[in-house]
Write a structure and sequence with these properties.
By secondary structure, the protein is α+β, with helices and mostly antiparallel strands. The protein has four helices and eight strands. It is globular and about 45 Å long. Bound molecules: coenzyme A (COA).
């Protein structure tokens, strides 16, 4: 992952965070595959799908990169992509579209850093609230969102189609930004 865009560090491991664009679609798609290949969060998104999402008004993305040995810095060209977030903010509403952290980098604070950056960006864009959907049986993500102040506001039965013909409900979580 080459450095570029706005970088800031955060998280217990020293993640470098930067805004991502369509040139990063393949990197994001690779992370999406790692995070959602089990089908638990719905379909895996291709690089072209991610490019299309990023072309929509109000869309934005962040990449978190990690350096082995906790040496993350903007000058370090050896940073490895560790996590991504795709979101959209339009008028007073915003939505987290997808979020994932590579298995090797989990439980080091990357998702928290990505989520907080996305909420700050949505607030700056004028959004008063952020919404997201998560599979009912996704314990890790539900725990993350609860810890970050999101509250359950809805449930969509059989929303995520699973391998083998089963399905899981989506829970809708929301958090006020003001
Ligand atoms: C959910 C996911 C994004 C969390 O990423 P992460 O970088 O490991 O999360 P963080 O380290 O930032 O964790 C922040 C908090 O979330 C909660 N959390 C995260 N993973 C958890 C887990 N496996 N079990 C319980 N709580 C968890 C904890 O409260 C944690 O704080 P703590 O470590 O201080 O206890 C990651 O597990 C993932 O990519 N999963 C697969 C894809 C996915 O489910 N995406 C979300 C779809 S809506």
């Amino acid at each position: 992952m080459s450095p570029g865009g706005r970088l800031s560090s955060g998280g217990r491991c020293g993640f470098a965070l930067r805004e991502a664009g369509s040139l990063d679609a393949r990197v994001i798609a690779g992370l999406h595959l790692q995070c959602f290949a089990d089908g638990l969060g719905g379909a895996v998104w291709s690089a072209s799908s991610i490019t299309r999402i990023l072309s929509l008004p109000g869309s934005y993305a962040y990449l978190a990169a990690a350096a082995p040995e906790s040496t993350a810095s903007p000058e370090n060209t050896e940073l490895q992509p560790a996590g991504f977030l795709l979101a959209r903010a339009l008028a007073d509403k915003s939505e987290i579209l997808s979020l994932g952290v590579a298995t090797a980098w989990r439980r080091h604070g990357a998702a928290r850093v990505l989520l907080r950056a996305a909420m700050a960006r949505a607030g700056e864009a004028g959004a008063a609230r952020t919404l997201l959907e998560v599979a009912e049986d996704n314990v890790a993500a539900r725990s993350l969102y609860s810890a970050e102040g999101f509250a359950l506001v809805g449930r969509r039965p059989r929303f995520y189609r699973r391998p083998g013909g089963t399905a899981a409900a989506a829970l809708v979580f929301a958090r006020d930004l003001l």
